[in-house]
Automatic annotation (TrEMBL):
CDD domains: TatD_DNAse (cd01310). GO terms for cellular component: cytosol. Belongs to the metallo-dependent hydrolases superfamily. TatD-type hydrolase family. It holds the Pfam family TatD_DNase. InterPro entries: DNase_TatD-rel_CS, Metal_Hydrolase, TatD-like, TatD-type_Hydrolase. It comes from Ramalina farinacea. This is Uncharacterized protein.
Length: 269
């Protein structure tokens, strides 16, 4: 799934999905750190919302857009977008997601109370709910979000500390999704997750971007191939087999986002 972070990037994500049918899918939305774009948009915020809606509806019909996002709140980076526009346009985009009926692809940093408050009124109107991606919150936040029916996305940033790992351990198997958030959120040797990677197979060789090769990773870039390391660490932390983690995460992802596949249990995607 290729993430849209503003209108232009959402269009690029759709173009990639169109170029690689059945392999790439896209999200449509404006990231909280880009919330200031609404007031700067030619024609104003309503025009941007109209364009997002049109893009989401068209690309959903074509099987290209599978989620509305990345939307949410980020109070760690208020220097990029102030709190007021973040709140205003998160709420507006939530209403748009309900109208379009796409599951949510959500972002939350240091904004738990406001984040949950705005979601609570709208989640019942979204049968497939959504995913809180790259989750780094507390155990209490985890429990609250799961109680709303949301899934939790785990990647390298979710497992930096021992406290993070305790939260990962508590994620219910039927609410777990795994991700890389490439090209960011890699697992590093200094992270608490490093001591749990023992069973993971080695990643492909990494080369400098100037020597790009289709069979290699690029140095300094977190790529999709590293998702298998995420799965191995989650399995180790939860005391489950890699097969149990992969089967659960796969079925949860397909059930929520579709991606052209029916889950193993034959539930509607």
């Amino acid at each position: 799934m290729v993430t849209g972070s503003d209108l232009q990037e959402s269009r690029k994500a759709i173009a990639l999905a169109e170029e690689h049918p059945g392999l790439c899918y896209a999200t449509v939305g404006v990231h909280p750190c880009s919330a200031n774009m609404f007031d700067k948009h030619p024609g104003g915020p309503s025009k941007l919302l109209e364009e997002l809606e049109a893009l989401a509806i068209e690309s959903k019909k074509r099987g290209l857009a599978t989620a509305f996002g990345e939307i949410g709140l980020d109070y760690d980076r208020l220097y990029l977008s102030e709190k007021e526009p973040q709140l205003k346009y998160f709420e507006a985009q939530l209403d748009l997601a309900v109208k379009v009926q796409l599951p949510l692809f959500l972002h939350s940093r240091a904004a738990g109370e406001d984040f949950e408050r705005l979601l609570k009124a709208r989640i019942p109107k979204l049968p497939k709910r959504g995913l809180v991606h790259s989750f780094t919150g507390t155990l209490e936040e985890l429990q609250s979000l799961v109680s709303l029916g949301l899934d939790i996305g785990i990647n390298g940033c979710s497992m930096k500390t021992d406290e993070n790992l305790e939260v990962v351990k508590a994620v219910p198997l039927d609410r777990l999704q795994i991700e890389t958030d490439g090209p960011w959120c890699e697992m590093r040797a200094t992270h608490a997750s490093a001591k749990h990677k023992g069973a993971a197979p080695p990643l492909p060789k990494a080369v400098k971007k100037e020597k790009w090769d289709k069979d290699c990773m690029v140095k300094g870039r977190n790529e999709s191939a590293s998702i298998n390391h995420v799965a191995h660490v989650v399995a180790a932390v939860k005391g489950l087999t890699i097969e149990e983690i992969c089967d659960a995460a796969w079925d949860n992802s397909i059930r929520m986002f579709g991606l052209g596949v029916t889950p193993d249990n034959d539930a509607e995607p």
